[in-house]
Amino acid sequence: MYDRPLVFLDLETTGATVTHDRITEVGIVEVENGNFVREWSSLVNPGMSIPPAIQSLTGISNDMVGDAPRFEEIAREIWQAVDGRVLVAHNARFDYGFLKNEFRRLGKTFSAPVLCTVKLSRKLFPQHPRHNLDSLMTRHGIDCDARHRALGDARVLWQLAQRWREDPGESTVLEATAKLLKTATVPAGLPDNAFEHIPEGPGVYLFYGERDVPLYVGKSISLRTRVMSHFSGDHRVTKDMRIAAEVKRIDWIETAGELGALIEEARLVKKLAPVHNRQLRRASELCAWHWPAQAAAAPPQLVSARDLAGGEFRDLYGLFRSRRAAIEALRELATEHQLCHGLLGLEKRSGPCFAYQIRRCRGACAGIETAEAHALRLAAALAKLRVRAWPFPGRIGIRETAAGGERCELHVLDQWCHLGTVRNEEELRELQDGVPRPLFDLDTYKILTRYLLGGKHRPKIVPLHTEPAA
Prior knowledge:
This protein is of the alpha+beta class. About 35% of the residues lie in helices and about 20% in strands. A 5-stranded mixed β-sheet has the order 3-2-1-4-5. A hairpin with a 2-residue loop joins strand 13 and strand 14 (about 415-420). The mean pLDDT is about 90.
């Protein structure tokens, strides 16, 4: 950190949406070789009204910015200040995103190495739970007479860097900074500007090799950062070394949120079968054990993925990628719980099963244990493998909206199957009218159960089993 040219930056804005809101003030502190060079700030006319809550927070009013220069009038000076320097900011993605969008409006592509002081503080002081700027100021004894003003907050960041140089020490800060600033080296097969236009939002990315052979499909809530991490230079993962040597083209698909990225990744991996994807491959033999309680005397029956698409999940146990895996799982369950291999259909013979002869079956096949008692023990053993029933009366949609509000998607689902993703009412009507019978997919099931039932997310659910809505 101290061996690099730095610019400590803070922006004040009309709001938090980079594609809609605009900058109202810029504050910059330039540093070379760990020494202060200069500071600069300017109010900016955003060309829109500043909301009252923002005026109250920053103290910047509409009257104050009325005669201020617009961004395009000071863009050259800002560019010169940040060009060739590491951009240091608190919650840096916010400030960096606003700068990129302002320059994009002027037809310029802005890119810079970025160091987030929130992330750096977490690395340096993991024992502390809070790393917002006010907490850091209190912890490190820093005062600011212009809090929530651009130059005032930029000065605080510079003071933090000086405090950290003393404690925990320069070498510790340099080591942490190096990890956060791992730079991506553009692979030889890609153009120099290969990363410039990749968006920062959620989505799926695709690497292609010679003759457009799919190499790898991945997903991320921050596409550009994730793509660049594959080419960070240290290549700790052998797969990344191979991808870097083979990649000739990068493509991506933006989504409104994380769920859309997860579903699209699973779909594309099965469709394209990329060379370096090991998981999420097509499971053509996907199957489960079907064992209805009312037919407890009968052995469990294997049903295929095509049968699962019918939507009857009440009596299903386990989801397996092959018949062999399903049979082996049932065999292990029988051994663990001393169940009869004959009654489970794992062994075809009359009389006592082989497991009973070696004292690994309690004797249901020999008349020692009743069929009812065996069925009860089988039900208890299978309970942990029970497939979750679809928790809705019919088809639903899950609405996802991008952070900036510029993208909204509705994922249409039924019986753990993804029927499609639509972006408007017309697309939804077409999907409702013409959706084919879906094939149950294990990876989609896992994605949806985690998302809907895991407790981490609060999905926006739209019922679709009565009146279509988008």
